[in-house]
């Protein structure tokens, strides 16, 4: 019998090409080990609540009330919910067209999109138009929709940093486009050199690829660097010169662990450059409720904001969004709460600040503990995690380890990460899942394990690493930097 | 300057080809009129809560508690929440890996998938495997993922009923495949003739199209018919003979308004046919929390179940699902609650039954009121709404009306629906958005307006229709049936 429609041989080749290491071989092996009873520390994905981070109380109170609007009339409601949560729940319910159970407009509720626009205006100092803001089920869905809108086929290219968060490579594969890599410089603190960008574009064009867009992740994932204003200006000028749309993944904008380079949005820099650049460069920026001190990953809430995108294109994006009817409504309310937070004087303000400060300050300490921990290990070097939620240490694998990996049929960093997992339960993602220069190896880990567990985890890593390095040390040198 | 990446001329042509009338011209015009202050009755989309349907209390209590888990330790919790809701919240929170704020497995939480499998087994009498059940952000997202997995390019075809719910045509366009239509027979109560199916496949093959899959919507959308077991057997035998995967859209399985043909799932019929058919035909079935008496559209919860899909394909589907990390977690809990409802003796059981029965019985009455109402109008004929949430009356437009539409540059049924909207505020979807035989015109309306408002709405429709028919009556005959 001929292969059936859903037999492997018959499937869409673009689906088969997709790679997504964050939930790849390492994650699957870790899940198996967990089933067998081994204690696993899942640092493969930025999922703070899974590692014990508590949700912020106030937004949860508001959304709980929105889920149970009949409580608003209950004389006892004040015993469980503060008055400002009750007021906010009424505020958001009034924006819906039938509570959380009704589809919203496919772009999200107008009221929340207005609150997002106001937030952007306060943040950047330039007005923002709610009609150009779409709410999404998490930022990833937004990224995928925009890439799907851009990519016509394999001769359309998208510039993506290497190392990159593999959402980008996966989505480009799925939509049948071409990934055009540009390298971040590890020795330059994962900085980006515009001359290299130019070379990447030239090479792609030589191969017949039309480079249509460029992705930046700021703060960086997996690399943790924060882009400077000067660097963002160079990037925007480059996009203008090369006629590229810029996709600005800014989901970690609240996750900043140093003071030299606070977060600055691509949009603010673009607007500040003035015409013609500010009027010409097409920019789509992404944000989420999953990161920051919120970490509400499971709610799936995000938005994208479009700049210099013509109305006819916005209509097309709206049309395609409408095919899946609407983003989930509870997460839209989380987004509203995130961009329009409590103010001094509100009943719940003090608690909200205490909770959110506690989280971000602890993340800052953990970023330091982790980087320092890695740098104290043999053959491991690690740039400081300036922002985002990850450390991306380089592991200088001895030639004997690389040979052993080859024998085992594994990519060397996969080999290392699997051994780490089996020995310690620490579930990381091999650097090859993000892309890296040839012959150089990394792993990505989140900085999310509970602060009090961090010393033990780093000690456990160190012990494993040192034993591994000893086992494969042939005193004949290491993989080149 | 050359067109930029996100200028209309540069976009992915498949995106431009997408049509989705449910939120198309009529919806956009209705939204405008609403902004201008006109009272609009949105019957364009099956969105029960938007038209006043109250959510079921118990599931909302459970999910509210899951959103605010800190309340579980509050001594006053019992004043606002019944004990069985508290117990259920604990039950579902224990399934998560960090509450609602943590990403779940990309297939959804194992515990909920087990509850779905148990539900399917109880419903059909055949065991179901949780590993072959994926939870999704609404059924539409699942349908899109499966079509994306199947379609390799424009020479891959999918059999879709006409009239159809335009999710299918939209998704097939977006993924660059070919829609192969098969017609439902209005005079046969929207039944399906397998000989016509055979002809549709033969015609497509003649054009060089590989027909890979067939879609059925049961109960039908927009047509409201319920498929008989005999008909489902014919369809499955046909899929076996023609080597087609069957996509069974069964989201309206709880919405049944007659007793002659209760819902029977494609899977139950397939399993009952025995080998080789039961072992060979590939089936993917879809369900949702958005319909039935739940109507929790805004939560975006659904699942698909795969039968006879090889593990390598399941792995590919899992991999692609993992790129967007996880379906939203609150809606997964709604799904668990839907498939594993309260039992007699539970504290909230009586209330739950009262609420759900109230909704479904009212829908049944409304289905009858609407069909009867349409059939009492001049030049309008309408099959009874046996199931689902829609009426799909045929409007026999006089030639003068068709001419007037042409002059206005409108498809005739769009012309009619726009006039209806302007005159009455009733926002419907023209039949052309679903497909219909040439020269025959319909509209789709939901049966969801509040029961007490139904007489007035139908009177308002009748008045408009009769005036319209009078205006365009040239006493020279009507559009042919």
Automatic annotation (TrEMBL), chains A, B:
Q: Which Pfam families does UniProt cross-reference here?
A: Aminotran_1_2
Q: How does it assemble?
A: Homodimer.
Pathway assigned to this chain's UniProt record: Amino-acid degradation; L-alanine degradation via transaminase pathway; pyruvate from L-alanine: step 1/1; Photosynthesis; C4 acid pathway
Q: What is this protein's record name?
A: Aminotransferase class I/classII large domain-containing protein
Its GO biological process annotations read: photorespiration
Which family does the record claim for this protein?
Answer: Belongs to the class-I pyridoxal-phosphate-dependent aminotransferase family. Alanine aminotransferase subfamily.
List the GO terms this entry assigns under cellular component, sorted alphabetically: peroxisome
Q: Which organism is it from?
A: Populus deltoides
Do the record's keywords include Transferase?
yes
């Amino acid at each position: 019998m001929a292969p059936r429609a859903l037999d492997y041989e018959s499937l869409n080749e673009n689906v088969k090409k997709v790679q997504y290491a964050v939930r790849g071989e390492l994650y699957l092996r870790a899940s198996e080990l967990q089933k067998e009873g081994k204690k696993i520390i899942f640092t493969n994905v930025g999922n703070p609540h899974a590692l014990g981070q508590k949700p912020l109380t106030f937004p949860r109170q508001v959304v709980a009330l929105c889920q149970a609007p009949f409580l608003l009339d209950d004389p006892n409601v004040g015993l469980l919910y503060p008055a400002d949560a009750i007021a906010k729940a009424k505020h958001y319910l009034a924006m819906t067209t039938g509570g959380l159970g009704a589809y919203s407009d496919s772009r999200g509720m107008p009221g929340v999109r207005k609150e997002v626009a106001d937030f952007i205006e306060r943040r950047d100092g330039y007005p923002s138009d709610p009609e150009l803001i779409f709410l999404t089920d998490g930022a990833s869905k937004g990224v995928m929709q925009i890439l799907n809108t851009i990519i016509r086929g394999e001769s359309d290219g998208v510039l993506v940093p290497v190392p990159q968060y593999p959402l980008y490579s996966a989505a480009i594969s799925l939509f049948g486009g071409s990934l055009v890599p540009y390298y971040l410089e590890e020795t330059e603190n994962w900085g980006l050199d515009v001359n290299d960008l130019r070379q990447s574009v030239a090479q792609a064009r030589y191969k017949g690829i039309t480079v249509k867009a460029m992705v930046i992740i700021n703060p960086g994932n997996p690399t943790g660097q924060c882009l400077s204003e000067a660097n963002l200006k160079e990037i925007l000028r480059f996009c203008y010169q090369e006629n590229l749309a810029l996709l600005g993944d800014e989901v970690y904008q609240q996750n900043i662990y140093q003071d030299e380079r606070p977060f600055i949005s691509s949009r603010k820099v673009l607007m500040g450059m003035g015409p013609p650049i500010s009027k010409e460069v097409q920019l789509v920026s992404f944000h989420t409720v999953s990161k920051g001190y919120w970490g509400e990953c499971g709610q799936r809430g995000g938005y994208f904001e479009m700049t210099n995108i013509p109305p006819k294109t916005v209509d097309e994006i709206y049309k395609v969004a409408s095919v899946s009817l609407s983003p989930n409504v509870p997460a839209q309310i989380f987004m509203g709460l995130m961009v329009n937070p409590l103010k001094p004087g509100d009943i719940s303000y003090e608690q909200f600040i205490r909770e959110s400060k506690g989280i971000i300050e602890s993340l800052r300490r953990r970023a330091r503990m982790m980087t320092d921990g890695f740098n104290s290990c043999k053959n491991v070097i690690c740039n400081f995690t300036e922002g985002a939620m990850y450390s991306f240490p380089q592991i200088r694998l001895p030639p004997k380890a690389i040979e052993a990996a080859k024998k085992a049929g594994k990519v060397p960093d996969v080999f290392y990460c699997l051994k780490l997992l089996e020995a310690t339960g620490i579930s990381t993602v091999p650097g090859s899942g993000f892309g890296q220069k040839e012959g150089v190896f990394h792993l990505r880990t989140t900085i999310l394990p509970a602060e009090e567990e961090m010393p033990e985890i780093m000690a456990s890593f160190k012990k494993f690493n040192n034993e591994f390095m000893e086992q494969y040390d042939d005193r004949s040198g290491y993989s080149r930097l």
